[in-house]
């Protein structure tokens, strides 16, 4: 999802874009990466590759660290060798969720899951391997294509499935096209460090996020059940609050991204595919 958004945005600005999916380039394969960098010689690399199935990571730490830790490190090593800039995506889950309010770069990470620990180690190894590394923490990404919480939730409700919505866990929704634009801008500025990039606003609960997306769409409200965070027993722990704010972006002259509800309006408008007699469907 984010990779496609980044490729489309960069191409729209006239960049020469080499957009590789997993089949074309496996970032855990050091030899393949070395050959790619030797052949293509990129000036900047924006790493959107990750294994984001939090519960699956919990049961398969080896693969989680291979993709989310070794992968970014491999990219950073090759970027350093070729003089390229690396922008690599990380996650709001590196924080434990116990803080009230927004997490900034001044807060110490304290990952609670295998996924989060692997992503944090990926940040650190990438930065250690290449000084020209920009780490971007983000979360609750929504947009066209790929798998994301919002699209899955809305699709299930419109298909007539029951859905439990957590009312007391919070994050900062982030619209993929706006995230993509900021990633490109950070690459252009070429200032190494850690940035928190999320859409504007005070954040939302899972319940508010989904309810906002469903506003104006024909759906059965009886299918929605409001539940507490503690009532859902999941294999991997998750932060109850993972809202992010950035201390650096505005200081560097980069305005906050638009409010997440503005992005949500655009997302819903773009992904409406039909209006059948039974209601509205979303891709």
Question: Which labels suit this protein?
Answer:
disordered C terminus, 283 residues, Rossmann fold, alpha/beta
CATH class: Alpha Beta
Q: In what order do the strands lie side by side in the largest sheet?
A: 1-2-3-8
Helical residue percent? 25-40%
**Estimated share of beta-strand residues:** 5-15%
Could you say what the CATH topology is called? Rossmann fold
Instruction: List the secondary-structure elements in sequence, H or E.
Output: HHEHHEHEEHEEEHEEHEHEE
Number of strands: 12
Form type: globular
Low-pLDDT stretches: 273-283
Q: Report the CATH architecture.
A: 3-Layer(aba) Sandwich
Overall number of domains? 1
Number of helices: 9
